[in-house]
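Notes from the 1:1 (GR / supervisor)

We went over the backlog. Supervisor wanted to see one worked example end to end before approving the batch request, so GR pasted a single chain during the call. The sequence is below; no edits were made to it. Supervisor asked that the structure be written out right there so they could see what the output format looks like.
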Amino acid sequence: MAETQVRFGILGCADIARKVSRAIALAPNATVTAIGSRSLDKAKAFASANNLPTDAKIYGSYEAVLDDPDVDAVYVPLPTSLHARWAVLAARKKKHLLLEKPVALNAAEFDTVIEACESNGVQFMDGTMWMHHPRTAKMREFLSDKERFGQLKSIHSCFTFAVDSEFLKNDIRVKPDLDAHGALGDVGWYAIRSILWVADYELPKTVTALHGPVFNEAGVILSCGGCLYWEDGQVATFYCSFLSNLTMDITAVGTKGTLHLHDFVIPFHEHEASFSAGTELGFNELVTAWVPQPSKHTITTHLPQEVLMVKEFASLVEGIKVKGSRPEKKWPTISRKTQLVLDAVKASIERGFEPIELGS
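Structure output shown during the call:
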């Protein structure tokens, strides 16, 4: 029996939409029904370049996609400054919402999005793709094993990539009126999410930005970092940057075990991903080697992580449409916690690197 096809509309032709439109095409339970841009010619070019279905509707406005009765859900890759407006409107039009990260300019703005989703019974999910890779679930098994990992003590995350002069001049991620969070919102979102994921989404008590953030002339963050502290003594650090070589690391240290991976956002290979795990590691008698050595674990997947994201989102939408299920609250809850920490880092920078206490 064929799976129900959830019909997607895409708002905007951002570069990331190329990857997600491919994911929608590869997902067994999804299809692209419509693409909309402020320019009809741009929408047509996107549809042609990305092999959208021949019957996909092409619109010269975002409103037309939201007004299309054949669209069940929308993927929104617009600049962060436009998220609240179009996400709220999508929810009011009863369109389920797959929203790119960072989800909003601040948590209060995000709350207006979630209020619209909840009051209209639509599913929300953000576009943090690595959460859906089967490696992520396998790593969770190790972190949850008290015999192998023990009690969590520290987390360290880093996501950086070096951009060129064209990016620094013209990319929307360095424009204060489009993506005011800069590197913190783009790559920092992933680092913060990874920390919360390791900590099983327990919010830290305080967040303090690291000294030495770098800004462009418009005041947008190009690199920064932060420390997170929990009441039980757990600590985490992260660093994000547009000015350093490509790095995507997570290190989680427990009382008994350690987890490492070096490609957490985008795996080195599309159909497999690895991590290393070690328990009660030590040295040999002469202290010239590790005994035992950490073990490498490789997880293969037929479907890439972005396809698995679309597949899971579409399954939730199908449950609501066909079975009368209620929207899953896990995803908006995780998004909001990530946004709260991001907001706290920014506030700490603005207040001279003061610790910021997190509320709910």
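Supervisor's comment: The chain has two domains: 6-129, 133-304+339-357.
Batch request approved.
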